[in-house]
Amino acid sequence: MAGTKENYFDLVYQVVRLIPRGRVTSYGAIANYLGIKSGARMVGYAMNAAHAHLDVPAHRVVNRVGVLTGKHHFATPTQMQESLEAEGVKVENDKILDFEKVFWDPNTLTLD
């Protein structure tokens, strides 16, 4: 079973690597893209473990309304916000401003 979890985490990380700079997505949108209904919690577990993978932009994954729920899993409580702001994403009171405008839905991916 551990191999299954690791494979799932790898799939999550592949999707997270596709999030464009200056955009965010949600745990649920990733789970939906991967075909795992009610899998947002598992995506959250993957994001909590992502910090060992420097090529996974975990700061771009937020909850379904744009709240930085994963901020406590970064080196400092402000690192997630600082990383987003460095990409031009505006954050106020731990929430993405203009969330609808910066939200990226992985289901819009097209395979060329």
Account of the protein in words:
The protein has helices at 2-16, 27-33, 40-48, 79-86, 99-102; strands spanning 25-26, 61-62, 91-92, 95-96. The chain is mainly alpha-helical. It has a two-stranded parallel ribbon. α1 packs across α3 (40-48) and α2 packs across α3 (40-48). The model has no long low-confidence stretch (mean pLDDT 90).
Write the layout of secondary structure elements.
Elements: H1 2-16, E1 25-26, H2 27-33, H3 40-48, E2 61-62, H4 79-86, E3 91-92, E4 95-96, H5 99-102
Secondary-structure-derived class: mainly alpha
Strand order of the largest sheet: 1-2
Largest sheet: 2 strands, parallel
Uncertain stretches: none
Total number of beta strands: 4
The residue-averaged pLDDT reads 90
The rounded distance between the terminal residues' Cα atoms is: 34 Å
- Specify the overall morphology: globular
